[in-house]
Amino acid sequence: MPRLKKKKQRSLPVAVSRGGTDTMELIAADDWRSSQTPESILPVPPETLSHEEVTLRFGRIVFGDPARGLVPYFHYRILIPVGMDAGHINFRIGDTAHVRNCVGHIGFEIAEWFRGNHFALKACQALAPFVRSVYNAVIITCDPDNYASRRTIEDLGALFTDEIDVPPNDPQYANGSRRKRRYTWIP
Fold it and tell me: 100: domain CATH number?
């Protein structure tokens, strides 16, 4: 599989989260930038994005764990017109084996009672301009038996690449995933 090309991007951090907690930490832009290498500087996330009746609201940046191949990601809440939270979508920045083979650059989850309304598809479409500002193409993955995600990814127009075994040393393996379907999406 070819390596994906990352676009050049001017950046400035907003609010960050170290790890999976919901606590936010504001960091002075100059302090944060001075601690980053050119490859690790993150783009500025849009505060809101929308498509049809779905609005994405930026929540936080979660830093990765380079030792485990985990990259930073932007976490957005998926909101529907009445202001209800229907789920979340994450946009991962980086190109590790974990991203390419197991989790992809885009990950989403819709709350059970909101499923069947194409909110994941619309969230991906809302996120597309931000994704396009960083990458020409991204990887999206799903478990082979997750038919709802497969349909969402295929309806998005992503092209099926292959189906692979999850490496035993990948965090997804510890979570129970054994195979992944990989798609390439040009937003």
Answer: 3.40.630.30
Q: In this predicted model, which residue has the larger pLDDT, 136 or 65?
A: 136
Where residue 68 falls among pLDDT bands split at 50, 70, 90?
A: confident
pTM of the predicted protein model? 0.80
Whether the pLDDT of residue 136 is over 50: the answer is yes
Question: Shortest CA distance to 77 belongs to which of 93, 60, 92?
Answer: 60
Q: Evaluate whether residue 154 is within a structural domain.
A: yes
Residue 54 lies in a domain: yes
Q: Which two tokens stand for residue 123?
A: 């969230």
In a domain, 132, yes or no: yes
